[in-house]
Amino acid sequence: MTGIRELAQRLNLSIGTVSRALNGKPDVNEETRKRVSDAAAAMGYVPNQAGRALRKGATGIVGFMMQTGSQITGEGDVFFMSVFDGVQTVFARHKLDLVALLCSSEEDPDAYMQRVVARGFADALIISATKRHDHRIDFLHSRKIPFIALGRSETDVGHPWLDLDFEGMAETGVSRLVAKGHRRIGIFAPLDDTNLGFVFIDAYRKRLESHGIAFDPDLIFRAHPNERGGHDIAHAIAAMPEGQRPTGFLLTNEAMTLGFYNGLYEVGLPPGEKLAIIGRDSPQAHFLLPKLTSFHLSLRDLGISLAESLLASMPEYAEMYPYGTVREIVPLELLEGDSDAMCADQAGP
Amino acid sequence: MTGIRELAQRLNLSIGTVSRALNGKPDVNEETRKRVSDAAAAMGYVPNQAGRALRKGATGIVGFMMQTGSQITGEGDVFFMSVFDGVQTVFARHKLDLVALLCSSEEDPDAYMQRVVARGFADALIISATKRHDHRIDFLHSRKIPFIALGRSETDVGHPWLDLDFEGMAETGVSRLVAKGHRRIGIFAPLDDTNLGFVFIDAYRKRLESHGIAFDPDLIFRAHPNERGGHDIAHAIAAMPEGQRPTGFLLTNEAMTLGFYNGLYEVGLPPGEKLAIIGRDSPQAHFLLPKLTSFHLSLRDLGISLAESLLASMPEYAEMYPYGTVREIVPLELLEGDSDAMCADQAGP
């Protein structure tokens, strides 16, 4: 690769002049700038990231770590792309670039994170899918890398985070279903130790108890958070003895709904007719019949909050975003549909 | 940020020893290695990417440029996440990390690409959504950055590319529909100048002509490639005078199908009953009724081919992947469903 030295020699200019021309400084005349930029293109000159980072102490890049793999986002992602959109809206103001750091599901997230930091190409990080105990949080804190977590964790180093209001979804969801006479309310939970699983189950359990309903672990349905997982849960429900089946269901993952609906039709338990459902809003959900009663939030706005809260924690940007350390639960809005209109006594086969 | 110099001073070791310890060289004893690594963690030492890149001439990172924004992937992406999965399978063999370079739809892709290259943090790039004339290809070639394109382009610098067999989809799709008596066959095309739009329309037109059917530009339906776009096309079809509507439809984008189905039900033209449809397979498509006749390919395998073909073009890896410059059209497999079983004379309201 051609460096700035070779470029300067070829043009018979000083390294300083070439550097100023390449960096768009105003004290270089247009003709020189054009000569330099043409020569840079012809010679395959690549301004080195490393050199820039060393000089300015900033790469201009923020990484968003997300997990990939056929069981996670391998069948399409309906969540992160909208969040990215919001994050980029904020970063564009500061000429920061967002890159998605794709951690394969076959890899240990902690080891991946250490490698990301060792490569050192980002100024700051956004992490997601926080685990109940998350080593990445300790690690980033120890390395003094600015970061924000999408998702709470028991691991708390006083870092900024945003999370969805899983407690609110449990409370509103259980109360709505109980009001229609449901006492056997099923929920989805992830297969791994993602923190949101624990948070939601805890809140669901508390809300049941406040209605005098005993917690039944058989009503927690664990599956992959994708279409197939939704389909599998429908079949798992049908396989239960009739009296033990849930008559209502809270599905807090938006990617599973279509498969869940379809699976319920297959097993003769049509959604909204034989099983009351409250789910999460998504672009797909708008095309379901019966209309899904769902919890909605603007993922773009969530992305904007994530980005602004991250910048608020970075000294270079804190003045523009004087929010301190943001640790915030984002509420969701209930959109009324028809999928939970039935009463408990209509349920069953 | 603490550098290696401060770390060495604090430990009273030479910079060379600290560097060897941090890089896992075998000539450093275990006790020293532990001392160095503990101190590095305590002092927030970050090995600098730039320094590494300068030393080894490699960042270990490959960037995959994709467009984001609510009209593109902002409503969820069912394609790229699976492709990433395949790419990562190959890269894991070489300890290469894949990062997604997210170019906002509000930004010029050419300017974005120039900035990505200026930041210089990736060894190689994968570009997608190639335009009919694509400046990124010229630019990457001029800068001597190894890259592969997912999608053909008229801009050809002899670079490697992979593309889906849009000609094959047009030929098989048109022939299947013509065999059922259809002569008014609608197609979807993108709103922008993505090359696949041109390629598909050309092939569709040729195939129609081989059957003696005149090309009618009113049967090209342009829309955003998402659920909403599919829904809009259904309404656009219903708004046409009856005799001018298509009786069959080729929908080559997989993200639009659910919205298309739903829109057709809304306007009283049930899919497979009043309009014959051939689409693209996706995880969502499996849950549609009537079952979608669709073109299928393994996106994971596509990702694997992309990664291997890129590595084949890089001197460091060419020996392991002796494929030369890969320029290949990937065939799709037809999955028979029920959505195109009806004959043309059953169409209409």
Automatic annotation (TrEMBL), chains A, B:
The keyword Coiled coil does not apply. Keywords: DNA-binding, Transcription, Transcription regulation. Residues 2-56 form the HTH lacI-type domain. One of its GO terms (molecular function) is DNA-binding transcription factor activity. The keyword Disulfide bond does not apply. This is LacI family transcriptional regulator. CDD domains: HTH_LacI (cd01392). It comes from Devosia ureilytica. It holds the Pfam family LacI. InterPro entries: HTH_LacI, LacI/GalR-like_sensor, Lambda_DNA-bd_dom_sf, Peripla_BP_I.
